[in-house]
User: Fold these one by one.
Assistant:
Number 1:
Amino acid sequence: MILYPNAKINLGLNIESKRSDGYHNMSSVFYPIYDCFDILEIVSSNSFLFTSSGISIPGSNNLCTKAYDLLKLKFNIPAVHIHLHKKIPIGAGLGGGSSDGAFVLKGLNDLFKLNISNKKLKDLALELGADCPFFIENEPKYITGIGDLMENIKLDLSMYEIRLVDSKIHINTKNAYFNIVPKSQKLKLSELIKKPIRLWKDLITNDFEQTVFKNYPKLSKVKENLYEKGAIFSSMTGTGSTIYGLFKK
């Protein structure tokens, strides 16, 4: 079985409050980017094995292994060999690791005919990480809570070219959140995203840009450059460091 876990971008990312459990309430629109993807192979094996190629993955406790361990615990599935060819940049705000974990859950569900519903898969994915449930249905969503609450939205950017700029800067998510100052939003992102895209530049923001750009001025220059080249909207995705621009095809 070969799967292609894809990336996502954040259209807006607002941190609204800090919770008593240490997490943050946020709002964002997640949009899948299907032409930026990893390659995942899952085959039956005598013993569990995870291997990888492409971009080096730090540590051994990755989300692919965690996803297998989770289904092994709950459904006692047989051993598999998982090979991940990593292409999505790590620490770039594109959700590559979360996508990998979610696709392993979906792949094992299909491979062993576990008949797990999408709702249950999303619950399982949440045990892996806050961004993982999005990749179960892998469609545009309005995201709230800690990233676990999702609403379907009608959003089609197929008429636009989405250019991703990877500056090879690894942003530590924990540090990015440590420096963020939560603030409530006057207008909901779910309403702002319905406005014409030409207005997004003045309406939709990523709260992490202020602190991340301060530490990495190069990223601010990348965003400015995309606008100079004709982008209708440009933003950092996630906690960074990828900057994207929307261009008319």
Note: The two ends are 34 Å apart (CA to CA).
Number 2:
Amino acid sequence: MLRLFSALAAFLFLPACTKSAAVTPELETRWSNKGLYDLTVNDISGAPLELSSFKGQVTLVVNTASECGYTSQYEGLQALHQELGGRGFSVVAFPCNDFGGQEPGSSAEIATFCTNTYAVTFPVMGKVQVKQGEGQSEAYSLLGTHTGDLPGWNFGKYLVGKDGQPIAFFGTRTAPDDGDLRGAIDAALAQ
């Protein structure tokens, strides 16, 4: 029943799946000479992870939630990761409880859910705040500043190039097997 309600709520909020980031001169200055791979974040176990470990790869950064109507996108994200991983591609998930409280679990619960429900092998980071304001993740501050877009719901996707610079933002409704997304990934891998 909760999943049905979540799916209905997601459908009703579809127009808000992408939100414009308020890009201030302060944020432009802060992030002008930085890319995603210049940051350090915490992984799902709480250990620091230098995103420079992804330098030279194309990444798809996704804000995820375990109780969302779009949670089944984990399956497609895992398929992309498996298919393209050998070509220098990785999905990187950032669980987020910002939208509808749909990621209420602890890090251990999130990790168990991802592994047991969707056999996720791509990196999952610690839970973050995606929404702009005090407490926003540095990763999402940078991504929003560079693209002008922030997720307005769960499963927003940023394609990040081999140099750590964001290439494009794809909203919630863009499925992992979407032709435009796949074309952008293939083009980024070819560079």
Note: The chain has one domain: 19-190.
Number 3:
Amino acid sequence: MRSKLEVLSRGEIAAIHSATLQVLDRIGVRVREPRALRLLKEAGADVAEGSDRVRIPEALIMEGVRGVPKQWTWHAREASKSFRVGEGGRTRLGPGSACTMFVDYATGRPRTATQKDGDDLVRLMDALEYVDINFTPVSFGASDEDAGYQDVATLVRDLENTSKVLVGPSFDGSMAKDGLEVARLLAGGEESLRKRPMLAGYCDPIAPLTHDRMMTETLIEYARMGQPVFLTCLDLAGASSPARLAGTLVQQNAEILSGALIAQLVNRHAPLIYGCVSGTMDLKSGNAVVGSPEAGLLGAASVQLAHSYGLPCSSLGQSDAKLHDIQAAAEKGTTLLASMLAGADFVDLFFGSYRGFNATSPEQVIIDHEIAGYAHRYAQGVQVDEESLSLELLEAVGPDGDFLGDPRSLRDTMARRGVEWYMPSLFDRSPSGGEGSRAPSVLESAHAAALRVLKEHEPAPLDPDFRKAAHSFLRTLRRRLAASSSS
């Protein structure tokens, strides 16, 4: 990654950091998970008797920051899909999470998602080049068979439908433990899983300045097993955080750094990702806004803050649009580009989602994949070296020459295809048709592409021994839940 967007100066980063330390030391955060509260108190944080409010001194916060690994490998079940984190390079992208609506192409209307919708989306994204993280991005009603452990059953199906890296159950500590047991089976044992992080969790601090019980349980369980956690804030300027963007950056920085400290007190060197999907409140409706220029600026600034601590980071690429329309493309394109040009390690909640993370569709996944290709090309920048300056070609063709007619120039042009020149797979660059002709819309082309991929693509087969062990574990969960409900 070569191109760079900076929205904060070094002095402004230092000012936000200093203000963050004041907030943590003087105002503090609420920690509603007893183990985390005890660990913080034992480490030297100020916790009043009978209170869950924690004031944390600078030295302790910075000790937590120093413990977070700056570089690590996220392992997939297929080694070719694993990648390094924290070494720069391309921004790693994933799907929107827990969308409550699936938009049906035939009707154009949102509806409740089904298990098949989720499985098809995962299989579709398994085939797409720029999808690095893959998991079921929709919420749907549990079947009778999966009731009570739906998130774990979904994780097993995700493993059957993709060979890319995964995000696991993150609702609370109990679900996290069950998901991590599936990961342990996949890795071949607990020690192997600790050495080769495979399953990420999500922990979302509650704005303002609160670590709730269930999310913090999730953080503890993933950190305990040495698995990565996205510490991700959705702070809304003007609603759950200060209206001024700098104030929102201070608040979410305090939330993330205090969360990072909790994880490090559980397991020093547990991998974490500093995450921001923060936005603003719409002053007309009171709704959350995450496709705005302000959301893009908050994301880009958060990347700079995270990197100032040496931490891997995730930012946003999102839209508030209600349709597959120009608004969706413009908002997702600009917010994604801001995050990538800022140097985000991840935009983990991107593919398919719009309506402010609430809706998804296969067509939007395909459109977003094209947007991602454009954004990646911008981030690569312009290569300038002795060969790329093309002096020999310029001399060979000369004034008034023909670059298409010179064999060396033509060979060089063809070699740039897909390397220096991005070649779209969806957007139409063909010559326009004659009068009265009609080209297919982008949405129509995306629908056809999604159907083609789903018809042709088969994920890499899952190891039979693991499949057997995973389904045996699901049966154990079923019996356990049946016994608890009957007692």
Note: The longest helix spans residues 464-486.
Number 4:
Amino acid sequence: MIADTREVLVEVKNLRVEFKGKGKKPFVAVKNVTFDIYKGETFGLVGETGSGKTTIGRAIIRINPVAEGEIRFKGQRISGIIPKELDREVTRKIQMIFQDPMASLNERAKVDYIVSEGLYNTRNYKDEKDRQAKVEKALLEVGLLPEFASRFPHEFSGGQRQRIGIARALIMEPEFIICDEPISSLDVSIRAQVLNLMSSLQKEKSLTYMFISHDLSVVRFIADRIAVIHKGEIVELAETEELFRNPLHPYTRALLSAIPVPDPRVEREKKVLVYDPRVHDYSVHKPKWTEIRPGHFVLGNEAELSQYEKLLAS
């Protein structure tokens, strides 16, 4: 097997995230999740609502505490208690674009303050003139006029509000951006504009993205590799076209079968698969995370892995 020479920017190893209630057994939202994100790529994380996608993103950005495992950024552990200086670097170098552009912007603040919030928190500007110049540059980069800085979020459309959210992330000059369903609440006509904007910014600034979504057709457009998550566990991970060509796990196949086809006749005749977890018999032989071919990982026990290998060979 040829060794991968790409630079790993983010490492997630055996991640477990729990939410504890008063006197109740903790709810396990994410369990035993492992993956790497390479510098300069777009890593897609796909699954249904409640599968743990956003929880993983929030754990990487240090909003959700980690129960077990570790997260590394540029080789340094950033999960758990870390030095103050490293915490400041993580705050600047890792940013997040949130799902709902209305809920994630402070309605009582002007765009100037919203975009500058990270600068204020990290004191990452020389003086007021420098801060204003950075705000103007960030707004221009996302296709907004500098004079918009004096307005409030309610004066903008959904697409414009999401651009403000992107500007807020860009102003920190990050290396890694977690995009949490950034287009799901936008009109279909606006989605392509925001995706194209994100792609062009990635090329210009050598950004690395983790793109969280429930929509495989959107992720296929933007992601280099895709991880499929089900109930807190990653069940399959591969390069985008490899995953679409050779989906192995039954859950991945069910997700792919639900993608709408822009042809009424094909759409009427297609068969949507329904995933039933009972197809797996893990009573004796437990599943393990296996690289079944270079870069293509799948979760399964020995019997399932043998079946998947036959599928790939056929």
Note: The radius of gyration is 21 Å.
